[in-house]
Amino acid sequence: MTLSSTHDGTVVRFARRGAVRAGVLAAALAALVCTTAPTATAAPTESPLSPPASVRADVPAGVTAGVAVFDRHTGTFTEQLNTAGQFRSASVVKLLIALDVLWNRGPDALPAADRSRIDSMLRGSDDAAASTFWANNGSGAIVDRMVTRLGLTDTARPPSTHPGYWGYTALSARDTVKIYRYLLDSAPAAIRDYVLGNLRQSTRCATDGYDQHFGIAGSFNRPWAVKQGWSGFSSGGCTATTATAANEPAGTVARTPAGAEAVDLARPALHTTGVVGAGDRSIVAVFTLHPGGTSYGKAYTDVGRLTRSLNVPGASRPAGTWIGTWGSGVRVRTQATTASGAVTTLPAGVEVLVGCQKRGQQVSVPPYTNDWWAHLPQYGGYMSNIYLSVPENQVPGVPVC
């Protein structure tokens, strides 16, 4: 493994495509690297218990998962795996925080500052906004209220040892389905449209610098609306950051007291939740825990593979070829040149969907050179093929743009 640094201080790690990449960083590489309010109603009555779905979920080795996919057209689950398993919610709890603020009043009745906070909290997963509501509205009492209002069975406030850590709220896949069913089927129209409208505008880069378009957002074409969660990682692409999400300090290894409802607060967590398809046909909830030390790019890739394996009625899947990448700080650009604008930065080692490829500016990482560039439709830009984990410059089987 060779470690090099660009002129602007960005560190890049190289691995040989398919084996070990030798060589040091050339000057050409530097340009590639980063830089009267409605009244809320009760939660929907649970439909009769569905028979166990035929589980298709492909859970990567070492990953602990809780999965539920609910088809609103048939009123049945198409996927159920560890649906009652409790996970620390990370930012998925922001759904409950927002609904608590909106309970018995519509979005138009909110003070401008609160509405702005909810917009940022739901679109960009803004932690500061969530912390403000948490502190002002009773902290764990928010969770208690929403448990009663929505009839949640596995959801609980953070442990007494961490009362201020809203991201340590316990949540399950089946309770998350209940939350979305309330939003879609029982919430006043103004609240439903406001909350889901924000989730449809989820930004690729969250306010803390993490790429949050994994899982549902990466596996299916729009329409979708998502609320994601992540916790226990040190960097998530988009921008350089050393902060962890879920309102917790870096390196946290605390656990709840042992017991039947103990929730793991140590392993890195990555969750994808939301609705997919025309008419918001399917509700998807995927909660995952990963081995300690797992990189964000690896977890991002594993959650993507798991989500793509699911039976999600009404979902449209993007065309292309999924290919692994290597390197840290690799940029996606508007055109196939290092001089074109940067769209975003890839999480290190993440798997990407390649739609097509074309020749562009030659890129050199001695002893390698490559003038082929891959178009990434989900990012709306190009990356040099030199960072794809394949031995050839032109990827076999991928069409020319």
CATH class division of the largest domain: Alpha Beta
Radius of gyration: 21 Å
Estimated share of beta-strand residues: 15-25%
How would you classify the helix and strand content by structural class? alpha+beta
CATH architecture of the largest domain: 3-Layer(aba) Sandwich
Give the CATH superfamily of the largest domain: DD-peptidase/beta-lactamase superfamily
What is the average per-residue confidence, as pLDDT, rounded to a whole number?
85
How many distinct domains? 2
What is the number of E strands?
16
User: CATH topology of the largest domain, which one?
Assistant: Beta-lactamase
Q: What's the order of the H and E elements?
A: EEHEEEHHHHEHHHEEEHEEEEEEE
Give the uncertain stretches in residue-range form: 1-53, 240-261
H/I helix tally: 9
Q: Quick one: biggest sheet?
A: 5 strands, antiparallel
The coarse overall form would be globular
Work out the helicity level.
Answer: 10-25%
User: Cα distance, first to last residue?
Assistant: 33 Å
User: Strand order, biggest sheet?
Assistant: 4-3-9-8-7
Protein name: Lipoprotein
Organism: Streptomyces chryseus
Signal peptide: 1-42
Keywords: Signal
